[in-house]
Amino acid sequence: MMTLYGYFRSSTSYRTRIAMNLKGLDYDYISVNLAKDEQLADAFKSLNPQGLVPVLQTDDLLLYQSPAILEWLEEVHPKPAIA
What is 2-76's CATH number, 3.40.50.300, 3.90.1170.30, 3.40.30.10, 3.40.50.980? Predict the structure, then answer.
């Protein structure tokens, strides 16, 4: 199972959600409200010490930075291609 942490007004989170939806992937979405500084909470910073969204968590992997997430999605789920 995959969990995507993001914020609806974050363009990088939006880009990641678009890619995952185009690929038809099943994932849980957890909103991290940047307007309320939720990205600075210890619980979130334990996932991403940079305090940025998006973060993609799988059973054995934790990725942050949308380019890395998109690259991993293309490698692991090549069809349909997004590039």
Answer: 3.40.30.10
